[in-house]
Amino acid sequence: MLHAITLQALKDIVGPGGWLETTADTAPYCHDFRNLYAGTTPLVLRPDSVHGVANILTLCTSSRISVVPYGGNTSYCGGATPRAKHAEIVLSLERLKRIRDVDAAGYTITVDAGCTLASVQAAATESRRYFPLSLGSEGTCQIGGNLSTNAGGTAVLRYGMMRDLVLGLEVVLPDGSVLNQLTKLRKDNTGYDCKQLFLGAEGTLGVITGACLKLFPQPNDYITALIAVDGLAAAVQLLETIRNQFGDSLEAFEYIPRAAYELVLKHCSQTVFPFDHPYSGYVLLELATSALASEYTALLESFLEVHLADRTIRDVVLARSGLQRDNLWLLRESIPRAQTLEGASIKHDISLPIAQLGPFSDKARSIIDRLLPQARVVAYGHVGDGNLHFNISPPVNTIKGSTEERAFLSRQKDVTCELLDLVTSFNGSFSAEHGIGQLKVPELERYEDPTALQLMRVIKQAIDPLNIMNPGKVIASLPVKRLET
Ligand code: 2HG
Ligand code: ZN
Fold it and tell me: For ligand 1, atom 10, which residue shows the shortest CA distance?
């Protein structure tokens, strides 16, 4: 329970319109995107200035109140959901949504953390520049959340993850002090790179309130193709040959297995399907060109002809208009929704060295066949980055909420454990782009290098000694033991 005087002091900081407290008003802030967690909060605060955020954290530190930073609520791991019965304040960044500055000549954009990703992309486009982070949830996810989870998406192959797109950060620390490193500089070798600590920290070390991000020249045009292949190994082979030929213009390389294609076909009626009959798998690839698109299209067409002839690819469609391009992307972006509409699923967001994707997949499939006979492996995603969403749906025709579905879900722990052990044996990661949140805390403890884990605890202890910042997320257990010297 929080003291009424403290609650009132927090409300006074944000003023009228800056807080919510009835159960009905706070409910949307207490559930995560996947409905895995149902939390509670005595108060949602919506400050409209950095100063407001700083005053809130100062008061929370002196009163030992826990704070859950909250962005667009699109985390897959419950990273922004308060825990039940812990009296944690939710601090929403939704009113901090100013585009502070676009420096077209310097190729930078400086924004508030509450800006949606789509609004940052649009502001860059208005200045004839390009901000490349691209995600299915870009209309709702916020830059602060993208930074705090080091988001990935579909253009990582060429531009890297969110971490690679940051020049400077502004962060409010738990004691209310402000780290002001909103630099536009591309060269700045001045000791430890403090901003890196907050990227991927999921609000456990402070609240990111602003960022200066890199912009790029706008591509002149896109060439988008959906290519039918004989499966994941064939897709990996295609990736190598296409990269050899087209180098850095390859911006996206997404794999869609037949099982995912069929789920979209079943559940998403607005999607257009370009092929008449099914193939084992498909690659959605996109080249972004600064040269004339027609030259690149001709090059890609002759490349594809050669590979159709030698049967390393099976079929292909090229988007001939913006609408056709959007339709191909809709097919890919609809997979998560289609899988949810199908019913329960067991998700794994894994990455591996690209050459290991095929061999891993074969071994992983035999684990699933053994533990969950008849279950459907829906392993799709950002193959160009070695990142697979290795998701599993129950056998065809399993009824939602049925005993069979519950039996399927009851194997989740065993399946995930064997699968992630396998990922580790292939030198892969159990969390490629979705972060840790509260969902993957046990996995972090199981798979992270012990020295790295210990360092994380030391850092957490040093910056947030009272453990008020998003407790229970990422780093769950404090205090730390001393690092061995
Ligand atoms: C995607 O790539 C997202 O579509 C979601 O990262 C993945 O639902 C998933 O497992
Ligand atoms: Zn993804």
Answer: 389
